[in-house]
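Risk register update: the risk that structure generation would not scale has been downgraded. Supporting records follow, first protein first.
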Amino acid sequence: MLAYIIRRFVYAIPLLMGVNILTFTLFFVVNSPDDMARMQLGEKHVTQQAVENWKQQRGYDLPLFWNSKASNPITKTIFYQKSVGLFSFNFGISDSGRNISYDIKQRMWPSLAVALPSLIVGLGVNISIALFMVLFRQTYIEIGGLVGCVILMSISSLFYIIGGQFLISKLLHLVPISGYEPGFNALKFLILPVLIAVVSGIGSGARWYRSLFLEEVEKDYVRTARAKGLTETQVLFKHVLRNALIPILTGVVVILPVLFMGSLITEAFFSIPGLGSYTIDAINSQDFAIVRSMVFLGSALYILGLVLTDISYTLVDPRIRLT
């Protein structure tokens, strides 16, 4: 088991290196430091001297990969100083002079406060609705559930956000319409975004889990369980749900980056100071150091999610561990 885990993490290293090189190429080769300087300065007639000063202040005046004029031609490059440190999660200083690592540590908690309850509650609601539809399959209950799921899927997520803010916050005055406070005071600000995230995900989530469970109920082991006298409820919860855990884990663990990185739309609409709004603000201010760091962090977390998915498979299905 330990050798399997080590092997999966070793496989992830080349992927992370490839993502880092590709990200660097997009930000510094396709979009040169001169272009970044002109976009950041925001002037129509920017002098070359102003561009050079901006580059020098941020370390963008060095060669990209090889500095033949320096005693150490590798370390005195933009790639080494701006990208190699990302492997140790040293994100450096933003173009506006902020400590990116400090900002990430501060903003990750509001993102997790929204995303983690949304995931747990949404997962329980979606699986429960899917099992209920499968339990009453080929009846009007299942048909009504499918129609409701299609209707929920057809509505834009922006409608849920704006409609929820108008109905629950503006008309009923149950919770604040937006904002955030640290500590236990954050609870009143999190109820509405979590509720909207759960409701907006019921349509697609319940239909997807229903398809998984329907595929399982037609297999031979389910017929054997019924032949032994188990009720349909026992079959669903003791056998079908357990054997459907692998695709469920795939969908849950892979969204690990979303939990950490936050939701761009939700945080922007509810003024939550998480990593999602942090990324949006960096894009609007054209702070490429922050955007580059967030892209790398998201990629690293996604690769970590894939590794954790493979590891979770071995816990659910012993055949994979033996193989």
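Supporting record for the second protein:
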Amino acid sequence: MGKRVGIIGVGQTHHAAKRLDASGTELIAEAVSRALDDAQLTIKDIDAIVVGNMDHFENINYVDMWAVDGLGACMKPVFKVTTGGTTGTTVGACGYYHVASGLFDVVMAVGWEKNSESDTQAAISTCANPTLERDPFAGAIGPLATEYSMYMKAFGATEEDAAMVAARDRNNALRNPYAHSRQEVTVEDVLNSPMLSYPIKFLDMCPRSDGSCAVIFACEEKAKKLCPRPAWVHASVVRHDYTHFGDLEWKFMPTLERASAAAYKLAGITNPLKEFDVAELYLPASTCGVKWMDSLWFCEHGGAPALIRKGTFEMDGELPINPSGGVISTNPIGATALIRIGEGAWQIMGRAGERQVEGAKKALCTGFGGCSWSDVMILGADLP
């Protein structure tokens, strides 16, 4: 077993559709500086850095070298990761393993994206088979719409169930000063917004954001010395498939089921709905906030709509999900899933401001991307 590791600092930018005031390198520097301030460290205290983004979106090669000035990485070991939508959680997992392995004592994980200077649709469309898949599945919206249509047919879920998730996350974002999209939204507003691809509507879907996030991991000895209340990493698990879109299992998410089951076993979780105090989940569309709840073992297959209608995942519910506003409020892709880890850590550390869940001691964080790639990280106030 490796060393025990805690998160001791988090920093993120103020996200927006277009950060015209900052280059990509400057966005990175903004998040790095805030993470160092949060941990009360200087860049000299950082032993190594892990960085990641969707580099082919901005057409920037060798991002690990290009971003050295923003990272503060001169003469430091730098490791680059790119795994699609999961890049942020994968960057976080690599930061964790860099410390758990004993190679380094203090490691900073940094994710970023400047979507205003990229073409995500052009980049994503090329991953779909040009004959069989590109027309219905190219991009993010088509596959997400397909899976929820099948879930609706199989289990009786509705468009309104998804709209309730959208309203929840978008209204939660009103308490998050870093969120890109902060607007008060009703279920009716979501249902009446323009249709993108049935049953997904405009307010069901995430934006494209400019932004960055940095999370600092430290070994047990350093974490206890440097931070009054670290967020300890209890489990970090990755599962993924390589498949054609048309061959995916549409009624549930196999990789998320396997990743969460493995993470729960490592962390000693037997009843996730009861044992987690808060969850920061990568939900690129509100429909995922219905269907994927089954695959996190919160209920049997098809049980999620009942939980949503009961208010289980609201801020005053049994398990608050996405107090930050989640992905449908903020989505700088390379940083998006790292924000889930950072926000989860802030909840454990008691630093989440107006979006703080009182007494949060156990947090679930997830990432999603690619052809069904799922990351799960579990954080706790107690040592694992």
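The chain has 16 helices and eleven strands. On this basis the risk owner (M.S.) recommends closing the item.
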